[in-house]
Amino acid sequence: MIPMCPLVDESAKEVVADHSVWRKLRTMNSIYISLMFFSILLSLSAGCESVRVSSGPQPKPNPGSDVVLYSHYAPAKLDIMPLTELVGPDQSGRTLQINLYLSLLDSFGSQIKSPGIFRFELYEYVQRSAQPKGARLFIWPDIDLTNPAKNNEYWQDFLRAYQLTLDFEPQTANQAYILQVTCLCPHGSRLSSDILLKPSK
Questions:
Q1: What's the pTM value of the predicted model, to 2 decimals?
Q2: 39 and 82 share a domain?
Q3: Does residue 63 form part of some domain?
Q4: What domain range includes position 35?
Q5: How many domains would you assign to the chain?
Q6: Is residue 62 part of a domain?
Q7: 92 and 148, same structural domain?
Q8: pLDDT in tens, 43-65
Q9: What φ, ψ does residue 3 adopt, rounded to 5°?
Q10: Which is nearest to 77 in space by CA: 195, 183, 187?
Q11: pLDDT tens across 106-140, in order?
Q12: Are residues 46 and 75 in the same domain?
């Protein structure tokens, strides 16, 4: 006797069908989530690589560019101001004094404060000559103003200039002189200027 197949209710068939669809949806959803997670990992990996590249050693500035920049603010000219004068003789009748005012100017003509070594030389003044600077009569010890404190001692801020006093004993009374001042700058240049000094009446 052949056994009879059990009858299957239609609602049961729908449940089975729904269950199969649900299982497919779950599978597709899992695949979608996996793809999304993988794409996120790729994005994070690319971002980390870009950060690593940007966080590498930065290019060092060219030191030569700084030298060129600051060279415009270095002394370019030495000027002996008209306030400079020859005074004396003193009470002893032997010593004359030069009240000297020096101004350093940058490449734009502005008066500046700068370190330097100053040298002072006194020459005989030769009248009616194409070469008025005659024999050298006197030279003072160099004055080193590379030290900030000492530099500031000679600096007159209201004049934007350096004030110095030079004493010497003349060989001849009522004689005119040429004073030559040289500034040895830290960057290696030499600035020089002359002035005619006549005895005060």
A1: 0.65
A2: no
A3: no
A4: 10-53
A5: 2
A6: no
A7: yes
A8: 655 554 444 444 556 656 565 55
A9: -70, 145
A10: 183
A11: 999 999 999 999 999 999 999 988 899 999 999 99
A12: no
